[in-house]
Amino acid sequence: MRDLAIHIEHLSKSYEGSGREAGRPVLDNINLEIMQGEFHVLLGSSGCGKSTLLNIIAGFLPKTSGTVNVNGREVVRPGRDRGVVFQNADAAMFPWLTVTENVEFGLRMQGVEKEKRRAIAQEYLQLVGLSSHGSKYPHELSGGMKQRVQLARLLANDSAILIMDEPFGALDAQTRKIMQRELIRIWEKTAKTIVFVTHDIQEALLLGEKISILAAFPQTGIVKTCRVEFPYPRRETDQAFIQQYLELLGYFDFGGGI
Ligand SMILES: Nc1ncnc2c1ncn2[C@@H]1O[C@H](COP(=O)(O)OP(=O)(O)OP(=O)(O)O)[C@@H](O)[C@H]1O
Ligand SMILES: [Mg+2]
């Protein structure tokens, strides 16, 4: 039996402000259990609160009420036990550092010596297909390349919990496939706990051991958590895949049908 990595009980979050949604909870009574080593996908439409939830788990955003525990301790701030890939790659990189320096930044903060951290940065830049771009600056990169730098940095930092907010959203279809496969390979090899946000049902089914569906605004909460039973590597054309895809599709309201 695996231990709990993330335990969320009765979590609610409202943003202050004067807009349409002021005071209205974005997240309401969220209950979630994620085991150590689990690949857990949070699936939901745009604006349903996925990034809000991830940012609370990561310790970047205060909750309104409820409890969020990581490895038995209440989350009050960001920590090295949780590595994050942000949805907005621009905000997540230091523009005055090169790609390599961005990737090795966390290792530098940990006091890892220069040669060793260079080697680790190289290894992960190669993995994400950017080994020849290490001396570039963030403004010289495309959106997809920036996302891959974030991913390399996440892996270089080697946190036990990886929190990923639509990390492949800006990638072309082919690169996305490669990165999805790589992520599964890394997860199988390292037994990390992964919390992965996407709005894409196919991506959720390709990656997740478990999938939690968040209700679309103005509803709140987790509509359903389900297990994906068929083995990796998964293929969109498999019968089991198609069957569960249609099942998950049923939880989304397309206002008039598809
Ligand atoms: N800083 C903020 N202040 C006020 N409201 C906010 C803030 N951040 C997000 N919201 C609101 O909270 C809701 C959820 O936003 P969030 O970014 O968590 O959604 P999301 O599911 O990640 O969407 P997407 O798939 O588009 O990234 C939205 O209605 C948004 O307008
Ligand atoms: Mg988001």
Automatic annotation (TrEMBL):
MF term (GO), any: ATP hydrolysis activity
Name the record gives this protein: NitT/TauT family transport system ATP-binding protein
Pfam families given in the database record: ABC_tran
PANTHER family given in the database record: ALIPHATIC SULFONATES IMPORT ATP-BINDING PROTEIN SSUB (PTHR42788:SF13), TAURINE IMPORT ATP-BINDING PROTEIN-RELATED (PTHR42788)
InterPro entries: AAA+_ATPase (IPR003593), ABC_transporter-like_ATP-bd (IPR003439), ABC_transporter-like_CS (IPR017871), ABC_transporter_ATP-bind (IPR050166), P-loop_NTPase (IPR027417)
ABC transporter domain residues: 6-244
Family matches, as PROSITE patterns: ABC_TRANSPORTER_1 (PS00211), ABC_TRANSPORTER_2 (PS50893)
Matching Gene3D superfamilies: P-loop containing nucleotide triphosphate hydrolases
Keyword annotations: ATP-binding, Nucleotide-binding, Transport
Entries under SMART domains matching the protein: AAA
Species this protein is from: Propionispora vibrioides
Keyword ATP-binding carried by entry: yes
